[in-house]
Amino acid sequence: MTLHWLVKPKDPAAFHPSFIKFLEEGVHSGTSKKDTEIRVSELREAILPVLKEDMASDAEFWLNSKAAMLLALAVLSIESSKNIVEAFAKAICRPDWKIKVNNEEVLAVEDAGIHMCLKKLALMDKSAEYSLGELKNGWQQTVAVSLFLN
């Protein structure tokens, strides 16, 4: 959750409004030497490249739980790359894509949290610079994620 706050502070998809309000009060306490926007920008510059590199190289990890997927969606909402989108598409399009829930393997699309994150990914895909629906190199041009919306 700390990483999520550093990537996308005040994200209502990940944080309760009372928690956001509590942290906002701390920001305005007057003890910080830098403006909030500058601080957020500097922190993002430090962590986004590392997160993006890891998301492209280990998409399975980022798609195996709701918490990891929410962080991945936060990163993608700020900055994306073709490598990440391709890696995610390859993992999502696998018919045997499974995750562990309560020590039991289930199809990822059957998990409510993953399903919700896939819907958010599909919605983000409509306005993204790199779209799941535009991938070439042997992958179908139809967006596999849209199959899960029904």
UniProtKB/TrEMBL annotation:
Coiled coil: none annotated. InterPro entries: CPL_dom, PUM3. This is CPL domain-containing protein. It comes from Leptidea sinapis. GO terms for molecular function: mRNA binding. GO terms for biological process: regulation of translation. The keyword RNA-binding applies. Residues 2-126 form the CPL domain. Pfam families: CPL (PF08144). Keywords: RNA-binding. The keyword Ion transport does not apply. GO terms for cellular component: nucleolus. Transmembrane segments: none annotated.
